[in-house]
Queue: 3 jobs
Job 1
Amino acid sequence: MDSYLVVSGAPNANEDHAENMLNLALGFVFSGRLVVVPGMNLAIRVRVGISCGPVVAGVVSQEKPRYCIFGQTVNVARQIRSFSLPGKILLTNSVRTTVSRNQKSNFTFTQHTVFEVGSTKVLTYFLEKNEKMSVWEICDVEKGPADSIDGYRELHSTEGAEMWDSSKRAVLRQQQVIDAFRPGPSRTRRALTRLQSVKRKFRTAQSNDSGVSISEPNVESAVCSVM
């Protein structure tokens, strides 16, 4: 599985960082549906996780300089992305709180659940729509004659989801058979080892979810990360 990190508000401050990230996420999910996987005839279902909070950034390496982002906000975004669902945008309460402070913004959210990220409890929401902008405006595409007025029906369509699930189950069964005949640690064992390593990495008492006050102090948000 490929994943990408996108940041708004670094290195240059951006008052609309949360709004920009939500619109970008809507564009990602919709644009993914326009890409059909060869041989399967199924559209890509992108899943997104967004968090908001402080980060440390800088250029790393002399041989191959790269601008890198570090911090618990990045870790939370990565975890939230893993909790998200195909075709869905899951975000922390800190993002919802930040964007609600902007009088120009008007987004609709559906409360999801509370996840434990390390020792921190994070309240999450699914992003449903931007009440002030259609999908066609966000993606700068022309609405078709049979399309909905705002494009959110198409964005949230579950068409192809069952076939994707069936394909993933078939691939998993094939992989299990291959692992059974392969010497050395199986893929499942290697995945378990990686998960245990990630679990240790996320063990922290610090909360970076500025909108959550479940037994943790609030931290002022400064930047949004999307995974």
Job 2
Amino acid sequence: AAPAGAATGALEAPAAAGQANGTAGSESEWPWQCPVVHTQQGFNLSAYMGTWYIQMQAPTAYLPESANNCVSATYRMLSPPTFPWRYTVGIRNLAYENDGTVRDSGDFLAAYQRGLFDPAKLAVAPKFLPKFFAGDYWVIAFNEDEGYALVSGGQPYIKTDKGCKTGEGVNNAGLWIFTRKQQRDDIIVYKVRNIAFEAGFDINVLNNVNQTGCPAIP
């Protein structure tokens, strides 16, 4: 669960590091049964900055299916980095519950590039926490020209009969389809779903996000 008093939104990595360990049916938590996921080659972090609209996402502890409305994530480079932990990306996540309740992370979250030789491997945490507590945030695919990104909460480690998935807890959790445009484009969404499928993800974990009738990002 998110830390007490924290406003939560998509792609958070709060203090309580951990994994969702619940499995069902034919699922098994043997990571070696899952193919190694590769991230976007030649990833350009600066180009990735700005606002993204989530079109599909897997449930997590901090963003259940009831909050699949008007979900967005906005990123900005931090110069200088935060003190003392030197996070380099500021994050603001926004989502709405079915009853209209707002989930807004404000300026609570930050990220840094964890992969020295893999710039698409980032990690996210509340900016006041040491990097040890940060949760994986991997950009599996990113195309600025076509306006899409596929993001995973790290390496999937739960084998299902449809592929592999991350957990549903806080860290090591989540799968998201981002688009630059808020209006859904089913062709792009289908393309990114297929990228996830080809990478070995169980895409059945993805649920649609309603992006219609949304208020402007305040």
Job 3
Amino acid sequence: MELVLVFTFAALIGAAIRYMVPGRNRHGMIALPALQVGLATLLFVVAMWLGLEPRSVWTWVISLVGSTAAHIAVAIWLPKQRDAADEALLAELTDPKAPIPDEPARL
């Protein structure tokens, strides 16, 4: 039962954080909230495997705070990476020294 609650709380936190961090148009609508949900449930299960009780406050703190920190870190890092990759691709495509491919065969 607690795992369903972790899933729900992580989804709500992930949806809220999506609108708080800058650059949200660069990482999609579902990607980072899904990352948070997956990581929160994984951390919750790992905390239980390590012997923490499901109703312990530390299990919840580890899972929700850890996944929220990862969500924020990726939300800040990802737009910069995507912008750099877009600029590199644009430079490659608009390079005047790039070889011009042969004309495609026509049927």
